[in-house]
Design goal:
The chain is of the alpha/beta class and about 350 residues long. It has two domains: about 10-70, DNA polymerase, domain 1 (Orthogonal Bundle), CATH 1.10.150; about 80-335, TIM Barrel. It is built from twelve helices and twelve strands. It has a ten-stranded mixed beta sheet with strand order 1-2-3-4-7-8-9-10-11-12, with helices on one face. It has a two-stranded antiparallel sheet with strand order 5-6. The radius of gyration is 22 Å and the shape is globular. The chain starts with a helix and ends in a 19-residue tail after the last strand. The mean pLDDT is about 95. The structure holds iron/sulfur cluster.
Length: about 350
């Protein structure tokens, strides 16, 4: 009897916050309602934070009833924990359903604030220097869980000038959901956050770099080089064995041509490992013809602030001398485990 009942148990309704506006328009048409109501629905959910699907502002009662039949609108998750660094960086920990923790970070600077969002709980890529990689992959996050991080960061920051998908996870291994989150956050009827102020960072998933190059998306691309020499890179970032850096750089070259855009290369310096003069020469040889800027990042071991990176300024000078635009990234939040490579979901 129980078995029979379970077989006929209704499937949970899909959450409306996982839908882009064009998807919602198609779903409304399927419910027999006008697709044009999607604009008011987006406005109500993302700007007015309305929580009752049956009575969204400026949405007719009949449409509300149809929404209730077709969708759920779960309360937006809030972070369980907030830690504040000595330098003002704020790290928040979410515990998404099914035991999927994920962190996001607000990075305040003098006159601007950025939010760093996670795309997955954990990560399957296994970069040896990264605390998230040490967790393995728990699961990919849904669009609503990514936008929940944005809302929490915005609440803490007051205003946000830029968004980076550089938190936990490899965004291009959860690209469908990350792309939906980008489309939802940038929708003119919702938060209307400019795509051009969003940066998606990858360790080099070539098929998605190619898809991005062919798409209308305006987001910026960042690629984590790790090391220019393939054996060393394979030891530090196992993804090298799937997508070798030389082929990644070819895909980036094509991306820059198609988009007429700059790319950002990120290079974490591991003292004595990838910061020798021969490494800067290899790096300049690898990317020197690409319209790019290189961000040099001092290594922060999981669990605490990094030690000295004595070669970082010399490495920068060597790249600049080779004609490569290069910046030193000021690392923030290392005392609360919020710096690059340190996110470990509260561990
Ligand atoms: S560096 Fe990025 S891709 Fe590598 S394990 Fe960490 S989160 Fe994953």
């Amino acid at each position: 009897m129980t078995e029979k009942k379970d077989q006929h148990a209704a499937a949970p309704l899909p959450d409306l916050r996982n839908y882009t506006r064009p998807e919602l328009e198609a779903a409304l048409a399927g419910l027999g309602e006008k697709p044009s109501h999607a604009a008011a629905i987006f406005n109500a959910v993302y700007k007015k934070h309305a929580a009752n699907l049956a009575a969204l502002p400026l949405v007719p009662v009949r449409v509300g009833a149809a929404l209730v039949r077709g969708f759920s609108l779960k309360p937006l998750e809030a972070p369980e924990l907030l830690r504040v660094s000595r330098d003002g960086t704020k790290k928040m920990l979410f515990n998404f359903s099914g035991g999927a923790p994920a962190e996001c970070v607000v990075l305040p600077a003098k006159d601007r604030q950025a939010a760093c969002l996670s795309s997955q709980s954990g990560c399957a890529c296994g970069c040896t220097f990264c605390a998230t990689g040490g967790l393995g992959l728990k699961r990919s996050l849904e669009p609503r869980e990514i936008t929940a991080q944005f809302e929490a960061c915005l609440k803490e920051a007051g205003t946000l000038n830029s968004l980076v998908f550089m938190g936990m996870g490899e965004p291009f291994l959860n690209w469908e959901n990350v792309k939906k989150a980008i489309l939802i956050l940038s929708d003119s009827k919702g938060r209307h956050f400019p795509q051009a102020k969003m940066t998606v960072s990858t360790v080099g998933v070539i098929p998605v770099i190619e898809e991005l190059a062919a798409s209308d998306l305006k987001v910026r691309l960042a690629v984590s080089v790790v090391a220019a020499e393939k054996e060393l890179r394979a030891r530090l970032a196992p993804m090298e064995k799937v997508y070798p850096i030389r082929r990644v750089v070819e895909a980036v070259r094509a991306y820059c041509r198609a988009k007429e855009a700059l790319v950002m290369f990120e290079y974490i310096l591991f003292p004595g490992v990838n910061d020798r003069p021969s490494d800067s020469a290899l790096l300049a040889g690898l990317i020197g013809d690409i319209p790019c800027r290189v961000n040099l990042i001092p290594y922060n071991p999981p669990g605490g602030p990094g030690g000295e990176t004595p070669r970082i300024k010399a490495f920068q000078r060597e790249l600049i001398a080779a004609g490569v635009r290069t910046y030193l990234r000021l690392e923030r939040g290392a005392d609360i485990g919020a710096a690059c490579g340190q996110l470990a979901a509260g561990n």
